[in-house]
Amino acid sequence: MTAAGLAQMAVLVPVRRLEPGLAPMIHELSEAGFGAIIVVDDGMSATDHPAFAALQQIPRVHLLRHAVNLGKGRALKTGINFFLDKLTGFSGLITADADGQHAVSDIVRVAEALGTRPRTVVLGCRAFSGDVPLRSRLGNRLTRIVFHFFSGHKVTDTQTGLRAFSSALLPELLALPGERYEYEMTVLAHLSAKGIYPVEIPIQTIYIEGNRSSSFQPLRDSMRIYFVLLRFFASSLISAGLDLVFFTFAFWLTHNVLAAMIAGRLSSLVNFALNRKLVFHSHRSVASTLWRYYLLAILLAAISYGGIRRLSEGFGWNVVLTKILVESVLFLLSFSAQRLLVFGSDQRG
User: Which of 36, 72, 329, 333 is deepest in the core (most CB within 10 A)?
Assistant: First the structure.
């Protein structure tokens, strides 16, 4: 990319604590020719304020401050808001971490991959091989598997902080929920649901002192991340609740499993509407997806009916509890089949 191209790009760096490599990194970014470098102090120690303020002397650097720690997600949104409100004529924004994990040469490569492509996101992805801290290796692998299951799209490094976004995407990303590390997963899930899949660029895998400077708390922050993924696909839980209410009421009236199953399936209209628009963001017509959906629904209902009859009548199990068990098992099959066979054929269009 030419110097003029980099001049149309800004870099956003959220900072929780001042690391020795931050000032050299900001100097290098300025010398590389980026048009703006936005550095957000997310509640760092007061003893670091003088050194942080000194960054203002570097050309094209903009310093923003949170009086207290509000989280990485909020720091990113503070920087994005400044970018949209105060800077004009920029084609893209690159986010990078402040802990030395991202080489400036890789930041430049990610910016070059973005170029001037509209509505595009580029991820700088680490290899996770060799001398990588165990918590980082396992955390990324588990999150990658969960993200792939729910989105149907493989991302090599779901937790990378090195990302490039075309300016056209930023207004909608600014409005997304999430104040801490889960915000970055919210962004990926949101874009994936809209059929916008990231371009991946391999980068160096750099961990300084076993990644001890990271503010990431594995248990707490991982749970936030997984909750984001589940939130995007909650319509099945809503529909399952309605289904259970209709089923229980009908069985109480008729004491007939088949009649109760038919009544329960009234919730499928809600499930179809929610899944089509909110979960899978299908662009296919209602007619082309409706018949596939109900063909699948009939098949799953037959399996569910058989399972409930066999377990409740053969073993004397409570009918309602048996239904919950059987349909919980079928949930994973239903979700995957809807993603791949009902709504998924046009998702990438």
Answer: 72
